Amino acid sequence: MDLKSLPTLTALSDNVTIVEIDQTKIVRVIHDKATAGICLHGGHVISFKPEGQEDLIWMSEQANFDGKAALRGGIPICWPWFGRIAAPAHGFARNSQWTLLEHRESENGVIVELGLLPSESTLAVWPYQFQAHLLVEIGDELKVTLDVTNTDTQAWTFSGALHTYLTVGDIEQTTTTGMGPEYIDGLKGGEVCQGGETLQLTDTIDRVYTQPAAQITVSDPVLKRSVIVENQGHNSAVLWNPWAEGAQGMSDMQDDGYKTFLCVESTLHAPSIEQGKTLQPGESHQLVTTVYSK
């Protein structure tokens, strides 16, 4: 995604501007270390391009920037639940309008903070008070922190994920390590399976890895780099790719889109909302993913 070519709507600083794609406003960061874009619709990171590199974050060429649909690609925020355990699927955060709260910059990079508060639409599907902050740190690496606080008078439970789409040169030549040996297979009705130390895909995958290592490494011989993913505040890592048949069934993904991405997600997984993580009034939780290449 060529963010640099978009005309500036508002200049907030030397490094931070507001631009627009269709009807959707984007916080654009242009810094010596990297360029990046964060969509206010969904609080959605859509690009992180370290200087001199291909974008680490994949976006669909057919993503819908109408300000209504969830975006295909980037880093969707799945919260306050992950999956189809309630409606809408993956929660409401990825379809809500976030507010730009703050931006700070230094020679090391830029930090952008967004916020989300309850509204009529969120209370209609999840009747709790909360405060959500998204901290996006852009420099030599990309660090995304979803910080949620229970501002209600009663406890609530939740799950979630930072659903990162990573750019790869060719999914069939890409190998992944560090995801751990055990996974819940979404293509086998949630069966618990054991896998090898190295994953190389030949077909669709939808797995919740329950024992991921501190670092998951996606080795990409085509783009001649390894992408490292480090997660915190999670209990699992989800790996997903829809393959050809899945991509053809999505109106917001080009038919061959599956060839150039792999989702590696920082996930707080739960089979139901009731079995999710509980926060008492005043308590907070941070779900974090850090992405960089070497």
TrEMBL record:
Gene3D superfamilies: 2.70.98.10. InterPro entries: Aldose_1/G6P_1-epimerase (IPR008183), G6P_1-epimerase (IPR025532), Gal_mutarotase_sf_dom (IPR011013), GH-type_carb-bd (IPR014718). GO terms for molecular function: carbohydrate binding; glucose-6-phosphate 1-epimerase activity. It holds the Pfam family Aldose_epim. The active site is at H163, E265. Keywords: Isomerase. Belongs to the glucose-6-phosphate 1-epimerase family. This is Putative glucose-6-phosphate 1-epimerase.
